[in-house]
Amino acid sequence: MRHGHLLISLLAIVLSSCKSDPYAGDENQKVKLKKDTHSNYVFDEDVTNENGSMSYEIFVRSFYDSDGDGIGDLNGVTLKLPYLQEMGIKTVWLMPINPSPSYHGYDVKDYYDIHPDYGTINDLDNLVSEANKLNIDIMMDMVLNHSSRSHPAFRQSYNDYINNNEGADSKKDWYHWSTTNIGAKYGDLYYECGFGSDMPDFNLDSTSLRAEIDNICKFWIQDHGIKGFRLDAVYHYYNTNTAKNVAFLNWLDSTVKKYNPNFYMVGEAWIGDSVLTGYSASTMESFFKFDNATGGDKSLVNVAKGFNATNIFNSMYKYESNIKKNNPKAYSSYFLSNHDQDRISKNFNEIQNKLAASILGLLPGTSFMYYGEEIQLVGTRTTGMYDDGTDVKRRLPLIWSKNDKTGECSFPQPERKDLDNVQQVELGINDQLKRNYSLLNHYKKVVNVRNKYPFIKNGLMTSAQSLLDTDLQSIIAYKIEDQTTHEYIIVVHNLSEYNMEVAAPGTQIVDEINTSRRVPEIKNGKLRIGRYSTVVIK
Ligand SMILES: [Ca+2]
Ligand SMILES: [Ca+2]
Fold first, then answer.
1. What is the predicted pLDDT for the residue at 469?
2. pLDDT over threshold 60, residue 247
3. How far is the CA of 202 from the centre of ligand 2 (A)?
4. What average pLDDT score do residues 493-506 get?
5. How far apart are the CA of 341 and the centre of ligand 1, in A?
6. Which residues contact 231 (CB under 8 A, 6 or more apart)?
7. What is the DSSP-derived secondary structure letter of residue 459?
8. 350-361 vs 439-451: helix axis angle to the nearest 10?
9. Which of 53, 106, 205, 280 has the fewest CB neighbours in a 10 Å radius?
10. pLDDT tens across 405-426, in order?
């Protein structure tokens, strides 16, 4: 690991590392932790997902196939809701489920229906109804920056523009038409298309388009009980113009809340903190925190590997404080990776992956797991030296069982089947559920702890680093506090491979998430915490 000399100089540690058994090797440690007297993962059975804030992103096509055609479907999601509830998940984000010519669905051709591969509106209603019984909110992807070029409105808009149709039914201003080249050509005109010619950009200033969007919101929220939207590409609504994007988001926020005052949205603005902070000026609740995702300059993946951790956390404290100044109800949506990024499994051994899960699970706001992260599902765009130019391998079928292939989906993009050369993980969800120390059960433990403290969602995160008597980057302490009741927790992560002893930033350990058989303790003002482990302190 890193900075071994620093650790030794603090006499805070020790422990030889690099043992193949992650739970072995504690004999020679200088810091003695209390003997473990119970199983590593103890779950508080009284804590449910009901007031939790852990979310789970699903690519329906790759999740669970209920009818044996090889394609994941809505009934498959319904069948697996009990698994998601057991994991403590509160919100399920379904990647696009509308009819679309593409396998990923981000070019919608009908905003009022379900992709036939995935099922029917009745299946969706059944999913929402079953999810409600299990306290799970169904959030759907809403793609409003652009439609599919095969959406009937695109052709009609062209015709209305060419014929200068000003009638009540006119869609002439739904898209951006021009006689000069602003993207791609259709008929005699050019149209704007930031994401490629298949995806013409909507003109979100159009009054009649906004009326249509209002109607789409009513359809899904009021008529079909969807609880939230994940908004695709909000940064591109008005060509990266923050002020205009925020104004549109405010309009959309007031629109969705007409149909459900508790409706919530999380926006995808793939930008750094400095610009993203400006989006919190909107009335909308949340935006994805890309800086802290894999590939970002302050990634949680790097934190879990101990790189530059205090600086990364300092930037997060600053961001969290700034967004709450803009909008007291704003909260962040953290994630390790998503469907547009290489899966994180390549970065980690299992124990570091567990630490990453502990970090993700104990951040304020909402945290999103990407399906398969709990079993280290594999998939990156790049094969060896080559970039295949497709994200399909980042969205491969979830593995449910090593031996029972029931429900396992086939390669999601059949026409690129030649790319299906990924050696996938051996153990699936059901195998890992049965293993006490599996990554999956670690995730389950983390979410169980998170769900004990519902104020995490809206709490303010501030540094508690000064309460420790060390300036090591390898141990992180922060406070999450309810701004109304002032209830709080202090979270301490040991990012190193060594058991550590530091000044205790509180008097009582109320929760522990261990990756070693040794349990932590507070004694004589000192906190002893095992390697790659986490404690919650009051
Ligand atoms: Ca199917
Ligand atoms: Ca746009």
1. 87
2. yes
3. 6
4. 95
5. 25
6. 142, 144, 249, 252, 265, 266, 267, 268
7. P
8. 20
9. 205
10. 999 999 999 998 888 888 899 9
**Which sign, positive or negative, has the C-alpha torsion 28, 34, 35, 41?**
negative
Ligand 2 centre to CA of 156 (Å) is 19
pLDDT of 136 higher than 70: yes
What is the pLDDT confidence band of residue 25, given thresholds at 50, 70 and 90?
very low
In the structure, what pLDDT confidence band is assigned to residue 154 with cuts at 50, 70 and 90?
Answer: very high
CA distance 490 to 479: 4
The token pair that represents 78 in the structure block: 């319904």
Ligand 2 centroid to Cα of residue 106, in Å, is: 14
Under DSSP, the state recorded for 316 is H
Pairwise CA distance, residues 507 & 510, whole Å? 10
In order of their start, the domains of the chain are 4-42+458-537 (2.60.40.1180), 54-154+177-451 (3.20.20.80)
29, pLDDT greater than 50: no
Catalytic residues, by residue number, are 232, 268
Which ligand has the nearest atom to the CA of 79?
Answer: 1
pLDDT of residue 5: 39
| Per-residue model confidence as pLDDT tens digits over 436-456 | 889 999 999 999 999 999 999
Q: Whose atoms come closest to the Cα of 407: which ligand? A: 1
Q: Percentage of residues in the chain with pLDDT exceeding 90?
A: 85
Mean pLDDT score, 477-481? 98
Q: Distance between alpha carbon 415 and the CA centroid of its chain, in Å?
A: 28
Interatomic CA distance for residues 392 and 291, integer angstroms: 23
Ligand number nearest CA of 194 is 2
Residue 136's CB is within 10 A of a number of other CB atoms, namely: 25
DSSP calls for 16-47? ----SSTT---TT-SSPPBPP-S-S----TT-
Residue 220: is its pLDDT beyond 90?
yes
Measured in angstroms, how far is the CA atom of residue 355 from the centroid of ligand 1? 35
Sheet of 509-513: strand order equals: 460-463, 475-481, 488-494, 534-537, 509-513
Cα of 194 to ligand 2 centre, how many Å? 7
Ligand nearest to the CA of residue 73, numbered in listed order? 1
**What pLDDT sits at residue 275?**
97
Q: Which ligand has the shortest distance to the CA of 117? A: 1
Summarize the chain as % helix, strand, coil (round to 5): 30, 15, 50
- Could you tell me the two tokens for 316? 């997060």
422 C-alpha to center of ligand 1: Å?
A: 22
How far does the centroid of ligand 2 lie from the alpha carbon of residue 90, in Å?
A: 31
Residue 36 to residue 425: CA distance in whole angstroms: 30
